[in-house]
Write a structure and sequence with these properties.
heterodimer, A: 250 residues, alpha/beta, 6-stranded mixed beta sheet, 4-stranded antiparallel beta sheet, 10 helices, 10 strands, B: 305 residues, mainly alpha, two-stranded antiparallel ribbon, two-stranded antiparallel sheet, 11 helices, binds adenosine-5'-diphosphate, binds magnesium ion
């Protein structure tokens, strides 16, 4: 296949009459880690969910592996091989860790379940010790590992992660980013990573884009973005500089 | 003591039937956060389907084996009532999903009125008697003229209920469908992100509730030997009471609630007055809800009422 695995063209999404995404263009190529950074409320989670049709894009097109998925129901999109660890983790709190992982593999009817469980438990040994525990009683970091593990259980072609570092202790963040890097390096997993933690994300990714008020204002190789003075000012050093200072947003 | 044991048997029998209906209320509430007020009427429709099928099989086709007739009626009633449950969800609820909160509730009450009036018009308001079936039973013990009996019907009702509950527990706890069903209860959007067809899962939940109500309907018919169009209402309300009492959304709660309501009703009738048996059942509900607002086994954090 020649084109990108995931491609968005002119995608706009609204909540009621308020635009959350305004004409977003984005490509994720096979085998890449692409990151989307942006301040709180920029529309990053909206973009992740719009790819799955919930909420649905009001205009523009979204294609996965060359197929137009803009109008497909959410579950049909998931069955094409996209998996998401969403904002807030959304583990099933009253199910065990094992059942959560089984839910991740729901579309495979139990084929290669043991093998995939083994793989996820190797990546996140913490989960292995806790397979019988109710997911709702786990710590934030463990729930994040579970959310990622659950996404992996579907054997996705594209893994989408929404702020996996949010609210976690630095050591846990390190573990999770190491796991993401390993997935890409060892299995060639294509990863789309949404982060506020711009430094970590750009270190890890091949390419990055910056989202400001629902618009992509800057895209390029992650190395270049790391050195970009405007990014440094807004997302790396000050961390929370007002979005108006980012060039490209007139 | 004798009266006590006899009422215990009667109460558990009646409670089994309430429990089977209550599961349909509780499951649907769990998955879409709405009370399916038409569920009691789906139950009532199933008693009529069962009655008509019985008459067809025994009188017109001349099947004389009661066991065979019972089995055929059971399967056919389950199938037809499942179709009812499916149609109700498709026509009255699915189009309203995502609209304002009270819309499906109003729709549910509408369906309920439609179903009971439809049966009234189609079948007439008079009671429908059934041919006698499965008479007799065991006398457990007898003293000074009072015999404690356990009828074959009661044995059948409790046995069918137990087997069904076990099977149902297995389905919900151990199978992929049950897992998907529980996932939809906990986070519908996340379930969809994992490739679960949420609409289909909700449909199947209605169908399962209807199938259990159908079994309850057939057992009810067998037990009382008579049905009328308003019979959907009172057992329906009692089963709903059972579901709320046990903690709406909780499957074991529905069964326990059903048994408690059945026991209260029979004991009250035996020791106090039969006229006030329903008042007793509903008063207990009110009292429990004052002290345990989420019911006996309900989750404290249930927020979707
Ligand atoms: N369900 C919703 N209904 C209405 N507005 C929403 C909803 N979700 C997000 N928004 C709004 O859309 C914008 C983008 O939000 P979001 O995608 O969550 O941003 P981010 O993930 O970058 O923090 C924000 O202004 C937010 O308030
Ligand atoms: Mg977000």
């Amino acid at each position: 296949m020649s084109g990108p695995l995931l491609s968005l063209r002119g995608v706009s999404t609204y909540y009621g009459s308020v635009a959350a995404l305004r004409g977003v263009d984005l490509d994720v190529g096979e085998g890449e880690i692409v990151t989307l950074i942006g301040a709180n409320g920029a529309g990053k989670s909206t973009l992740m969910m719009t790819v799955f049709g919930a909420p649905r894009a009001r205009s523009g097109t979204i294609a996965f592996a060359g197929q137009d998925i803009t109008g497909l129901p959410t579950h049909r999109i998931a069955r094409l091989g996209l998996a998401q660890s969403p904002e807030g983790r959304r583990v099933f709190p009253r199910m065990s860790v094992l059942e959560n992982l089984q839910m991740g593999a729901a579309l495979h009817d139990g084929r290669h379940l043991a093998q995939d469980l083994e793989k996820v438990c190797t990546l996140f040994p913490r989960l292995k010790e806790r397979l019988g525990q109710r997911a709702g009683t786990m710590s934030g970091g463990e729930q994040q590992m579970l959310a990622i593990g659950r996404a992996l259980m579907s054997r996705p072609r594209l893994l989408m992660l929404d702020e996996p570092s949010l609210g976690l202790a630095p050591l846990v963040v390190k573990q999770i980013f190491a796991a993401i890097a390993a997935l890409n390096r060892e299995e060639g997993m294509t990863i789309f990573l949404v982060e506020q933690n711009a430094y970590h994300a750009l270190k890890l990714a091949h390419r990055g884009s910056v989202l400001v008020n629902g618009r992509i204002t800057l895209s390029g190789p992650a190395r270049a973005l790391l050195d970009d003075p405007s990014i440094k000012a807004a997302y790396l050093e000050g961390g929370h500089a007002p979005v108006e200072t980012v060039p490209g947003e007139a | 003591m004798d009266v006590f044991v006899q009422q215990l048997i009667n109460g558990l029998t009646l409670g089994s039937i309430y429990g089977l209906i209550a599961i349909g209320y509780t499951m649907v509430f769990g998955i879409i956060g709405m009370v399916n007020f038409a569920h009691g009427d789906v139950f009532m429709v199933s008693t009529f389907i069962a009655l008509i099928l019985f008459l067809l099989l025994t009188a017109w086709l001349g099947i004389s084996s009661v066991a065979l007739a019972f089995l055929l009626v059971l399967v056919a009633t389950m199938a037809l009532t499942a179709l009812w449950g499916f149609a109700v969800e498709r026509i009255a609820y699915r189009p309203l999903r995502g609209s304002f909160r009270l819309a499906p509730l109003i729709s549910a009450i509408g369906v309920s009125i439609f179903l009971s009036n439809f049966v009234q018009v189609a079948q007439g308001a008079r009671n429908k008697p059934t041919p006698p079936m499965l008479e007799g039973g065991f006398t457990l013990f007898a003293s000074d003229g009072y015999a404690v009996t356990l009828s074959y019907k009661q044995i059948l009702i409790m046995a069918v209920t137990s087997v069904l509950l076990l099977g149902f527990w297995y389905l919900v706890q151990k199978t992929p469908f049950g897992r998907a069903q529980r996932a939809c209860e906990q986070d519908r959007k996340m379930a969809a992100l994992l490739g679960i067809d949420v609409d289909r899962t909700i449909s199947l939940t209605f169908v399962l509730g209807a199938v259990l109500a159908a079994v309850a309907g057939l057992l009810y018919l067998l037990y009382y030997g008579v049905v009328s169009f308003s019979d959907g209402f009172v057992p329906g309300v009692k089963a709903f009471t059972a579901a709320v009492l046990g903690g709406i959304g909780s499957l074991p709660g529905a069964v326990i609630g059903g048994l408690i309501i059945g026991l209260i009703e029979t004991f009250w009738s035996a020791y106090f007055s039969i006229e006030y048996k329903d008042v007793a059942a509903f008063s207990i509900l009110a009292i429990v809800l004052i002290f345990m607002p989420s019911g006996l086994l309900g989750r404290a954090e249930v927020e979707k009422v």
